[in-house]
Amino acid sequence: MEREVQVREVEELTGRSGTTRFVLRDDDATEYTTFRDRIGKEAMRFRGKRARIEFHEEERRGFHNVYLDGIGPAPEPSGPDGADGPPPGGGRAAQPADESAWDTAVEAAPWILGTREPEEAVAPEELYERLHPFKELVADDIRKAGAEDDEPDRRS
Predict the structure, then answer these.
(1) I need a labelling partner for 72 at 20 to 30 A (CA). Which of 31, 34, 49, 113 fits?
(2) Which residues, 6+ apart, have CB-to-CB distance to 2 below 8 Å?
(3) HSE value, Cβ hemisphere, 13 Å, CA-based, for 111
(4) Which pLDDT tens digit goes with each residue over 88-133?
């Protein structure tokens, strides 16, 4: 089954046997559990955000369990009331360019730094100096793409 939810919190719990389970709670206080590390870590990225989840339910030993099978971004609503069309004022529904660019730079940080697992911590100032130029390039690309989208089609 699939559902769009507002992810309120994701909790990582380690049991006595050493197994790790992740519990996602949505705004309706529904709990979804996974023992899959990859899915649990991905769920943590959606804290406080809307997400589309895949899940299944099982009855086991008198308990009703809801298992999280996958998670990804929820599609953006097309208009103010979910209807198709531009948002009010003709603006874009997406994040501002700088915010999106920082998200991209942070995701690319391991490649920019040259390693997924540095042997020692990178000083915040150095990290900023390395990520900021990349973030600026991405933000400029986003702004240029937005300007091109807003230009009228001159081929008619």
Answers:
(1) 113
(2) 52, 53, 54, 55
(3) 6
(4) 444 444 457 778 888 888 888 888 888 777 778 888 888 888 888 9
Q: Are 22 and 34 in contact (CB under 8 A)?
A: yes
Could you give the 3-state DSSP secondary structure of residue 125? helix
The DSSP code for 71 is E
Instruction: Quote the pTM value.
Output: 0.50
Give the β-pairing of 20-26 and 31-34: antiparallel
Q: Which of 28, 24, 99 is nearest to 55 (CA)?
A: 24
- Tokens linked to 153: 């089609």
d(CA 24, CA 101): 27
Residues 6+ apart with CB under 8 A from 143: 97
